[in-house]
Write a sequence for this structure.
């Protein structure tokens, strides 16, 4: 597995368990790239859905991917604070073409006051049956939902008070 270079612009590709493409973010600037962690930033990035529809992200965002965690975290910077969108997913890989992961439907939306909602549980159950997620994947994902909730409550990693500010400042240096 490769490692993206700091300052490099990469594509992010999300897949479903059946191998089909789910969503592609065209341009994310790498702020940190190691074997274990990739932190990226983007603003008004073009996103292409599996059906070909496209849209542009509305606000700056800092993305956090970890090679040992079955989730990724996007901190969206809005006027009234940072909102987080957490995708339960496979750990990422980077293959010099793009950063890639499998999206497993479950999401957690976190508000600036650190309250949160688990989303798409019905979609997860439907896809778990349709795509025949193995029991081991189901158990890993359930453990990682609990881990993610602990991180939110403990303000750990991307949820720590200064994390988004520090990485957004770094992102702005690449935009100049």
């Amino acid at each position: 597995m490769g490692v993206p270079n700091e300052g490099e612009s990469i594509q992010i590709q999300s897949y479903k368990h059946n191998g089909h493409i789910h969503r592609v973010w065209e341009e994310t600037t790498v702020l940190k790239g190691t074997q274990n962690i990739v932190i990226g930033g983007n603003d008004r990035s073009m996103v292409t859905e599996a059906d070909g529809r496209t849209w542009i992200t509305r606000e700056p965002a800092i993305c956090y991917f970890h090679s040992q965690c079955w989730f990724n975290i996007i901190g969206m910077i809005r006027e009234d604070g940072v909102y987080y969108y957490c995708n339960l997913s496979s750990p990422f890989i980077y293959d010099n073409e793009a950063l890639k992961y499998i999206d497993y439907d479950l999401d957690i939306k976190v508000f600036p006051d650190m309250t949160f909602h688990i989303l798409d549980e019905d979609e997860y159950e439907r896809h778990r049956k349709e795509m025949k997620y193995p029991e081991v994947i189901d158990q890993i994902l359930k453990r990682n939902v609990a881990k993610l909730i602990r991180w939110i409550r403990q303000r750990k990693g991307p949820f720590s008070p200064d994390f988004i500010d520090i990485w957004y400042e770094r992102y702005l240096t690449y935009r100049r």
User: Anything to note?
Assistant: The chain has one domain: 9-171.
